[in-house]
């Protein structure tokens, strides 16, 4: 039986635990970056490292997850990978964006080959490794169940907030409320 192929761009602070949990069910690809420690650990657990985005997208992925620090980094990645996407691909953007970031990402990745969804998460690296994050999902409702099967490997609950913009707003509000408490 072939496992679905999932790639994670950003397997550091939060992404390491996500990738570790994804490995329990899926064939996982990670991309090299400057922090080698989490990559080395993931390879020992069974992940496959690739050195660039072209090689990553040549793997005929079922799902690509992006879990990076901020909107500018995510946008740089989106602009670089967009021309290389030749087949239908579910993208789950786990990045916590600034107020316009999700809309900008959606605009960059608008294509009939891209199913762009977002799921910023609630919790930290410990919850990521334990697989008990909370996911705030947004996208086309027809993609919710497909997204959820991947997200459920590291999220205890995944909440559908409707559009990608509404999900991003809910995450920013959640962060704001957390700061108040």
Strands of the widest sheet, in order across it, are: 3-2-1-4-5-6
What is the number of strand segments?
Answer: 9
The percent range for strand residues is 15-25%
Number of helices: 8
Helix/strand-derived category reads alpha/beta
Q: Termini separation (Å)?
A: 48 Å
The helix/strand series, from N terminus to C terminus, equals EHEHEHEHEHEEHEHEH
What is the 3D form? globular
Percent of residues in helices: 40-55%
Low-confidence stretches: none
Major β-sheet profile: 6 strands, parallel
Q: Report the average pLDDT across residues.
A: 90
Q: What is Rg?
A: 15 Å
In words, what does this structure look like?
The chain is of the alpha/beta class and 181 residues long. The protein has eight helices and nine strands. The protein is globular and about 35 Å long.
């Amino acid at each position: 039986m072939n496992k679905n192929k999932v790639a994670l761009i950003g397997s550091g602070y939060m992404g390491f635990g996500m990738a570790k949990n994804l490995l329990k069910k899926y064939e996982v690809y990670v991309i090299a970056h400057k922090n080698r420690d989490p990559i080395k650990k993931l390879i020992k657990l069974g992940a496959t490292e690739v050195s660039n985005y072209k090689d990553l997208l040549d793997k005929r992925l079922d799902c690509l997850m992006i879990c990076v620090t901020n909107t500018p980094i995510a946008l740089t990645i989106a602009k670089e990978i967009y021309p290389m996407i030749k087949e239908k691909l579910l993208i789950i953007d786990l990045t916590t964006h600034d107020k316009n970031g999700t809309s900008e990402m959606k605009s960059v990745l608008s294509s009939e080959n891209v199913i762009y969804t977002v799921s910023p998460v609630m919790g930290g690296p410990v919850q990521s490794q334990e697989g008990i994050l909370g996911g705030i999902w947004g996208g086309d409702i027809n993609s919710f169940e497909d997204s959820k099967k991947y997200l459920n490997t590291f999220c205890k609950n995944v909440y559908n907030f409707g559009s990608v913009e509404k999900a991003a707003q809910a995450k920013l509000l959640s962060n704001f409320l957390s700061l108040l408490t």
